[in-house]
Design a protein that fits this description.
heterodimer, A: 241 residues, alpha/beta, five-stranded mixed sheet, B: Nucleotidyltransferase, domain 5, six-stranded mixed sheet, two-stranded parallel sheet, 3 helices
Amino acid sequence: MARKLEEINAGSMADIAFLLLIFFLVTTTMDSDEGIVRILPQATPPDWTPPPIPIHERDVFEINVNAQNLLLVEGEYIYMDQLEELTYDFLTNYNGKENLPAMITVNKQFCDSKIGEIRNTIATTQNMDETTRKFWESEIKYWESKREAVEVAGEFRTLPKMAVISLRNDNGTSYDTYVQVQDRIQSAINRLRNEWCRKVYGKDFTELREDIADDQEKIKIIRAIVPQNIIERQPKNLGRY
Amino acid sequence: MSKFKKDSGGSAPAISTASLPDIVFMLLFFFMVTTVMKEQDVIVDVSKPEASAITKLQNKSLVDNIYIGVPMNAPAGSSPRIQTDDQLLNSAVQVQDFIKKKRPQRDPEDLDKVVTSLKVDKDTPMGIVTAVKQELRNVEALKINYSAVAKSKKTK
């Protein structure tokens, strides 16, 4: 006669599962990568020079960082903490200073006349090479995006097309300092973008997400109003690297 | 004498814990699915710089990591080196091979969304970083991310 089987106690099963759970919690990583995103410029053929466009000195915000991690901005030594404020001044020039960019007022008419001008240039230039044509096409895209922004936000004041933040570091500059500089620049840009975004859409720019279709459009508009133009020049090589 | 028998024992029956393991297993599977295993061992020392204006990289499968820092084991030297996929590179040019190798593994539609994340130690001189950036330009991997950790909020 078979003995009646005794039931196996499943009480410890939970403990085993908990152990497994904790093991997975410890070994897997949840850390999502974060940082400052930048788009590198396209590699251009070495013999190509851009079509001549006048650049005024007041339109360039010059940042130099040397191998001792010291900052020289617009010809003056500054501390890292001052950089964000100075960048913000450059981006807005509320006081209309002579040494900061002359802001342009963008409205529909202005955009249309610019686009017409460029179309005219393309039509009248003969034997235009591929790279130059692409350059002019990107110009048209630039003004079209501005016009789109005008339709949403109305007339706005912005930096001239050629206004750039020009960054030059030394090969011996520490990466930490370099990231700090990029961070301060980005903070200033974000601040201004947040102001615009709050005005137009009632929320912060930094809250918008690129993977939401609805937000993508908003990001595009705000980017057209507050452009982010940073160029990096060939680093100097005076440091110890 | 009543019709209804009074409960003989004073204590309530024990709550069955038989379903507890199931619940925990469900949690376990949830974590197994949502988290990612560490794909690679970092063999260079990277302590990231701090920054405040940072954005999160959304899609992890569209990120290529390049590490730059001093190798952890002494024989590899004490000057900063570039690491991709578990190995140290001898020169920045090899970054091109790394990017080219990654490309066929991806959906062609996603190629323009790929971000190359530079995880660089904060004491690294910029020379080596610039060299890597130049190679990324040459291979047209233009979207990059300077990986940083969030700065503890400033008191203003």
